[in-house]
Amino acid sequence: MMKPSFFASASALCLGLLLAIGVGFEANAAAKCIKGDRKAPYTIGWANIYSVPTWMKQTQGTIEAEVETLKKQGLVDKLVVTDAQGDANVQIQQIQSMIDSDVDAIILIAGSSTAPARVIADACAKGIAIINFDSLVDTDQVTAKVNTDSSQWGDQAAKFLIDAIGGKGKILILNGPAGVSVSDDRRKGADAELKAHPDVTVLAETNTPYNVAPAQEAVTSLLFANPEIDGILSLGGALSAGAVLALDKQGRDQVPITGENARQFLELWKEKGLKSWATMQPNWLGAFAAYTAVQALEGKDVPAFVKIPLPVIDNSNIDEYLARAKDFPADGYIYSPYDEELFKKLLAQK
């Protein structure tokens, strides 16, 4: 017969092992919102704010491709996709539906920086990995935020344009939709340079969707009202293409212009010999968000914010991008290459 002291010792040992296992798991599940109680294969929700712009379609394409890779690795079972059609309130309802169906992760571009805070906090409390990229939310109740530095984007664009026009002149500023964080932050980022150069006069500004047609229409109206323009500070690629087409249609001389990696803009840049500079919000941020969500669910340490370096496109490398143009939609974005090794390096940043 075993002594009571043996049972006490054995019980203590088992308890110690259980505690050790629990503590060890929690130590591995270091990312926010992660409780360690979810197992692969996972269901990922993609709460899309709108799917119409080609940039969004390309971004969803990278998400779907990454999910297929993760499926082959036995890490993901299903991708659930919603489309709020530009309505932040609808996006909130769709996120709530994902929570109710107990998805394991939600990746999103926020339609509002403030409105989704409550529903996102609810998802986080339930152990759902939340990866927010591109347009960010004003809450830290997420697993990770992923973005380029939009303020740096605006600053670099303004520096290029001001230098290109010799530090003085009349310019137009083209912004994306008001209230969208990436658009607002790019514009704020340009402020310091503009204020430091009082001889640069901002004639007018626009806020339009990131599409060529509305940008061309808006710039056309501004051209009628402003016969003298020395440069255009465009903070979006389709906006730049629209501006170039508007100038062309009115028979106006092209002026220095900043932009983004939109294929149409890059092709116009080359065709017309524009004095330009561009950067990009890589579409593969979507794929990286899906990858990051799974890494967090698997117990990996994930940074609260992952900063994506801004690639620069200028006359020294524009031909490299245009050489790959055929692989992208005519109205799409020629984004930089990516792979899992790049994703690992980005997650390893401190």
UniProtKB/TrEMBL annotation:
Cellular compartments per GO CC: cell envelope
Periplasmic binding protein domain span: 45-301
Signal peptide, first to last residue: 1-29
UniProt keywords, alphabetically: Signal
SUPFAM superfamilies with a match to the protein in the record: Periplasmic binding protein-like I (SSF53822)
Record-level Gene Ontology MF annotations: carbohydrate binding
Keyword Signal recorded: yes
Name of the protein described by the UniProt record: Putative substrate-binding component of ABC transporter
Species, as recorded: Mesorhizobium amorphae CCNWGS0123
Coarse class of the protein's main subcellular location: other
